[in-house]
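dumping these here so i dont lose them again. two proteins, back to back, each one seq then structure tokens. dont judge the mess
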Amino acid sequence: MQSVITNLESVFIFARRRSPDAPASISLLRVGLVALIGSLISTPALCATLQPFVGVGFGHDDNLLRLPDDQSRLVNRGADTYRGVIGGLTLDRPIGRQLFSGIAEFTSMKFDRYSQLDYIGKNLKGEWHWFLAAHFEGHIGGSYAQELASFADFHVDQRNLRVTRNQYADGSWRFHPSWQLRSSYIKCEYAYDLPSQRYNDRTEKSLMTGIDYLASSGSTIGFQFRRLEGRYPYGQSLGTGFVGNDFNQEEAKVNIMWLATGHTQVLFFGGWVQRKQIGRADRIDSGTNARLIVNWTPSGRVKLVGQGWREFSAIEGALVDSALTTGSSAEATWDFSEKIQGVTNLKHETRNFTPSSGLVVSLPSGLLRDSSNAASVGLAYKPLRSLTLKISAFREQRSGSAAAGTTSYKATGASLNVSQQF
């Protein structure tokens, strides 16, 4: 269902400044929003930005449930048309050197065919960007999100809302003009509505510490250690027993931000990673993980972003719980004029699975792999400064793995969205 939400919400790329991506928790969010609103009321409004927005969207997906190829062709079984309404507001409030920001967004989604999937989506975020003295700064934030879970690996026509609660805090100390120490703590919680997918509920906690060299040119190079702990409160039922998917992951990585030219920025983040499943001596994965991002802006109107990655990640599947994911993507943004912008995305990804159970360990590794391709194109038009219209289309295709319990499917869709900012 992620493609539906992405199509509907992406219209606001022109209408509002993007909220911070870093994870955060609902309790911290409430504190941040209360403090932000209180400061907004108690001080002149000229010092803050409060921007409500609304939007409507319509779309069609010819395989909403991501059914296997042989099933989706039966009387267009997976096709559906949807419509949605979005409303909310963004807040930005500086207080001295401190900066508070937040967003409250609500989405009402309706489906013509699978009306049992109708739901209210929520997206709440808040962050405090703090500064202390001349050499200390960091962030504290919180978020809460409720959305329809993806149908990519579970093709049931039942509403399955995924709730994500996050919290984070980070800080850096620039103890020398060319050096800084930094550290962060992140906690992410995931919960699912359907009892049949409860085994995917999990909490992930990570603690990171690192050091960076800051060149006078603006480029940076650093090194960091991170420990990630994943805990699943419910076991996964396989055969006559239950399998625990708890894991610990250790990382030692280098991070580089290189300003190659005035138009080119290169980001690299990679190194050694070891992932261990608790209580399973045969489930130790280790190797090189890395992500490379190249931002190229050949002109003021064109921006190109290319990425490549090789990373261990959690998988919410029926027979698999983790994978070594390799992939690449490209995005092109072209401002034809001040009012018209075009965006194109291409993505290819391959997942090499680690099974949840020893039942399929003996299978050839080639059978525990799937690959997917996705492409999208969109055009945004701003007839007025506060009004945005967007039309977009996408196509997805995946070659599944029967041994890993993932299916092959194709999906094509399009959407039309209109948003107004006040």
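---- next one ----
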Amino acid sequence: MKHLAAALLFALPIVAQQPQPAPFGEKLDVNLVLIDAIVTDNKGSQILGLEKDDFVLKENGVAQPIDTVDYFTNRRLLNAPEQSAPFKVERVSEARYFVVFFDKPEDGQLFDQLALARSTVRDFIKDRLQPGDQVAIVGHDVRLKVYSDFTSDKKQLLAAVEESARFGTGTLEAPKSEGASILRSASRSQIMSRTGTVYEALDVLGDTLRPIRGRKNVILFSPGIVEPGETVEGGVVINRSRYYEPMIHSLNASNVAVYPVQLQRNLAGGDVPAIHQTLEGLAAETSGEYFRYNTSFAPALRKIEQKNNGYYLISYYSHHPKGTTGYQRVQLATKSRELRVQSREGYVYGE
């Protein structure tokens, strides 16, 4: 068996305070931070048209001035003409980014489930892909394999899904066309020598996705992750690999949400917590969602796709003492207590 349990993320609706000025003479690093957020009402319907004055963003209980709020949507959420839309349509981006990641099970197990997953992905590409969508197909066995960089070309993507079934070498060549790319930001040596575990592969993948403005979504088909150096006792992972935290930090720094989809259905010996721990943790710590039991993979892909029909990208400037490093927790809410915000819970600074 290859391949953490964490609470679901939520934002606390708390009253804004004025930030305290830095002590006189203190040198600060000032960095732009981007936080993606999905806002829903109590029925789960996504909310459009919010502005920066509608949000409250805090670090350590202190409100931070929001610089910009942009809205990304493929316009499926629009039910009125553009001139009547509840937000400024000219400020909307239609791009959505999906990375389909096939984690190869050990010992030739679960290949029937992988075949079903690939079939579901093919249907998603053929039937659900929107004009503004960009999709990449990757896999992992001994290292990260890129079978297709980002594209909206359905023919290329379908061919990449077929190639992923063989877990071949993939490609290391970046596309010649401009636009979003994994391989343009990753060196050959990074992929060949720094992606031996799934944690390292996701870490490098996070770094390569950082230049792309917007929310990126990794759909991770996996049987569960327990990496070398991690110990399982009583069916529970009791220690973390040294690669785990760097992976989480890389994904959050790049606004990457991970949606793990469990491949296993019939679990020999019962439902062992260890096969879910890392997948649950990845989802919870990157503002994604874990799909634990799947007799079919279509509902999971449909929910991921619908969830990303619209989201906000919020920018603000962070201030930390020069030369320091650490992890900064962030609380994001709306001023309306009737709305719910799902966002990542922090970022690493000073790296």
